[in-house]
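The record is given unchanged here:
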Amino acid sequence: MKPMPATLGQLKSSGWKSRSVKEEIRENSVARIRAGQPLSDSILGYDDTVMPQLHNALLAGHDIVFLGERGQGKTRLIRSLTGLLDEWMPIVAGSEINDDPYHPVSRHARDTVAELGDATPIAWIHRDDRYGEKLATPDTSIADLIGEVDPIKVAEGRYLSDELTLHYGLVPRTNRGIFAINELPDLSERIQVGLLNVLEERDVQVRGYKIRLPLDVLLVASANPEDYTNRGRIITPLKDRFGSQIRTHYPLDVPTEMQIVRQEARSATIGDVQVHYPAFMEEIVAEISHLARANANVSQRSGVSVRVSVSNHELLAANAVRRALRAGETAVAPRVSDLDALVASTAGKIEIESVEDGREGAVFEQIVRGAVLQVYKRRVTGDKTKEIVAAFEAGAVANTGEDVSSQDLLEFAKQVPELRTLAVKLGDGDESPAVVASAVEFVLEGLHLAKRLNKDASGGRSVYRSRSTTV
């Protein structure tokens, strides 16, 4: 990085121009849009829905409230806005509120510039330091957001009427930057009133001080639609002052959800066991969340977060690793029989509407079975299983479960060549025992759910037979 101006005189000579934060973001947004660059590479599934609305709001210079259920990436989207700020910004050195060297607003900065003129020292701050965030909680106070008298400064001998006795809150300290409030309706109404001037008149007032502190802030907030009636609400005058309200959403299709899960889930290697994650198992994990979002027994008011998919993806791998450790295997792939473990990672993240006790397990089982069948129908098309079903009608019996090794399932597949061929195809050509075993279980369960094979399940073990076989 080339040397930056260190004094106000050098800054003027460099040709640097002062812009408001909204002008800065607007100009950088124009450059991004013109170049066809995304706002953030980590925000997926919003290209044709949320992003055009966001770009419109930024180009219009609006303060924004993002409205959506939990787990829709609202906070990440807000934090990504820092990428639209200039990488470095000059301030009056020592300023607590990022004073513009050309237009200082705090008493400290005004006095410094008046005294030193072009010799005023300049400091540079990175765009990441121009972002402030507060989670709205019932105990949040005006002092937290706007500021309060600092008793230490008063004890040092300053008068209460001296502006220098102020301790600035989070909003002034984010001057010339982006300030975000998460879960805005949780902020008590009397505190929301304190934000009215910030959004409209662009100033703050602290207690009885005769000061007007014009701030330059892009204010962004997030809220859950249910918060309007459950825990609190955004007061009407404050809602009116936000220029744009943008509705977020969950991934609209399974491939997008799979892409997000791959981005967010932890490493597929646990200890010395390598986890091979077949695409069809990833698809089942994503399909579970999509079916839950459409299930009448699941509360859609609280939503089914993408975190459900991420947690399920990770726990499915963990259960497979535990199975591999017990079997002495060093490579493993999640199987359909591992899906039972997902109750632990799902139960706390979705709310069942049913009033009957003990219905949660039945609802989850129904969703999982539906997900497996949907993925099976998409992946196994045409009459690819005719010979497999014929082998079972001829007396073949398959055992699956935690105590059945990958090698055992591979050996069974070798006895039914059509099953092995289909399993390798489902595994994208991977002929390793772990992936073939996973695909074999997937095909067998799909045939059972499609009512072409019988299944006897007991104690974590399942036996697949011909539908014409009686036990």
